[in-house]
């Protein structure tokens, strides 16, 4: 890897470190509840198509 590429990667890594990759407006509880509700809806749809058994 060239020295210029290493410099660019180091700069990008340090800029990304300021934010930490976490979004302040995305709460783990909200994301978990959203995923749970989505899975429950998909389960209900799947069971409704499987009533012939």
Description:
This protein has helices spanning 3-19, 28-49. By secondary structure, it is an all-alpha fold. The mean pLDDT is 80.
Chain-wise SSE layout:
Layout: H1 3-19, H2 28-49
In short:
74% of the residues lie in helices and 0% in strands.
Silhouette = elongated
Secondary structure tally: strands: 0
Order of SSEs, N→C?
Answer: HH
Give the count of helical stretches.
2
Sheet with the most strands? none
Indicate the mean pLDDT: 80
Low-confidence stretches: none
Structural class: mainly alpha
- Measured by DSSP, the beta-strand proportion falls in under 5%
Helix content: over 70%
Rg from Cα: 22 Å
Distance between the termini: 61 Å
Pick out its properties.
53 residues, mainly alpha, 74% helix, elongated
């Amino acid at each position: 890897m060239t020295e210029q590429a290493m410099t660019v990667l180091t700069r990008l890594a340090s800029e990304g470190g300021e934010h930490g990759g976490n979004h302040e407006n995305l709460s783990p509880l909200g994301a978990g509840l959203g995923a749970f509700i989505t899975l429950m809806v998909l389960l209900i749809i799947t069971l409704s198509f499987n009533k012939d058994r």
